[in-house]
Structure to design on (364 residues):
């Protein structure tokens, strides 16, 4: 807090008032509701929920409204709220193979069992401003979106398993519990469950840059989108008082399976390996970036040389969280008067003893 700012507490309270007025904007313009944010800014809501580690569209919308659209600040607000919540139980692992599909595509296979389902996406739109939205608030009519399919769609990666061309990932002996990043500090080397948790709530911009770097030669991978699927999955848990599994709702998620060529090692034949990404809601860019970085971070496991930043666990995982990175950068706005004065005195003393090159007599 700005305890040293001139005016003290009074100035801080006035700052709160100014912030509230700036957030509200012109009172003559209808105030934006959280329901409008949920429905019309759904992609922003999905990002805040994913990186905030809380699935609650209403709270995510509230955080976006409170932060005046600053998504990193909204993520901070939601993550802080999450820290106050009691943990009532653990859900069962979701089965994305039974997803009710709203969108499903593959860049690796043209003809899929069940077909390619384009769904709601900007991929096939022209990146041109739609000025009809300014004039009427309504864009040009679009075909009605079909309801999600209830038929299970086999995963694309399963097609490669028939030829034993894709790595298998058997359940480890004893099926150990996954690492819980919210309950235990991050330590290196981190296992894959810890890495995936870290990447799931990592800042999308940072993750996107790391993923891009793997495609620019800073990694030994050549990726293909095996499959991206978006839809709802059933969320279940087993209450202690009941002792059997019950469904508590449907959860919209985006899943990405990235396929990468692997030349083989002393113990493994040439094959395709995988990177995995999963995020709340419709978050394709995040899931794709997560899958690319997940595969890059498997370099040690696959016997590849670790030469690029995206392959280095400590570099990626220590700098991926927007809360930590934003806080560390923004703390520079706080008063550092004493530190600066000590450095100022140090630089003055060093200048007094500095000898200009070519000047044997030194300073006058």
């Amino acid at each position: 807090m700005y305890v040293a700012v001139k005016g003290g507490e009074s100035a801080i309270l006035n700052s709160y008032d100014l912030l509230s007025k700036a957030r509200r904007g012109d009172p003559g313009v209808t105030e934006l509701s959280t329901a409008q944010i949920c429905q019309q800014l759904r992609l922003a809501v999905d990002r805040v929920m994913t990186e905030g580690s809380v699935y609650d569209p209403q709270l995510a919308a509230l955080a976006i409204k409170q932060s005046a659209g600053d998504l990193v600040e909204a993520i901070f607000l939601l993550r802080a709220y999450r820290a106050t919540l009691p943990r009532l139980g653990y859900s069962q692992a979701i089965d994305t193979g039974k997803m009710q599909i709203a969108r499903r595509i593959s860049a690796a296979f043209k003809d899929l069992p069940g077909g390619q389902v384009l769904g709601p996406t900007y991929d096939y739109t022209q990146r041109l401003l739609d000025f009809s939205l300014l004039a009427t608030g309504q864009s040009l009519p679009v075909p009605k979106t079909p309801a999600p399919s209830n038929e299970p769609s086999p995963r694309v990666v399963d097609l490669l398993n028939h030829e034993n061309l894709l790595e298998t990932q058997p359940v480890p002996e004893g099926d150990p519990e996954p690492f819980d990043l919210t309950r235990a500090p991050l330590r290196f080397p981190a296992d894959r469950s810890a890495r995936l948790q870290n990447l799931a709530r990592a800042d999308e911009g940072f993750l996107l840059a790391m993923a891009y770097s793997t495609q620019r030669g800073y990694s030994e991978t050549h990726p293909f989108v095996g499959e991206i699927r978006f839809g709802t999955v059933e969320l279940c848990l087993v209450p202690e008082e009941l002792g059997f599994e019950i469904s508590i709702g449907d959860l919209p998620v985006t899943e990405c399976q990235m396929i990468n060529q692997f030349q083989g090692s002393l113990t493994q034949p040439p094959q395709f390996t995988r990177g995995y990404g999963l995020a709340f809601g419709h978050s394709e860019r995040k899931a794709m970036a997560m899958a690319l970085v997940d595969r890059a971070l498997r370099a040690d496991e696959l016997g590849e040389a670790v030469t690029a930043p995206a392959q280095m666990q400590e570099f990626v995982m220590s700098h991926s969280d927007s809360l930590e990175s934003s806080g560390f950068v923004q703390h520079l706005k706080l008063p550092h008067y004493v530190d600066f004065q000590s450095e100022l005195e140090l630089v003055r003393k060093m200048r007094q003893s500095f000898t200009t090159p070519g000047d044997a007599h030194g300073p006058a």
User: Anything to note?
Assistant: Strands lie at 100-105, 223-237, 246-262, 271-280. The first helix runs from residue 8 to 24. Residues 82 and 300 are 34 Å apart (CA to CA). The mean pLDDT is 86.
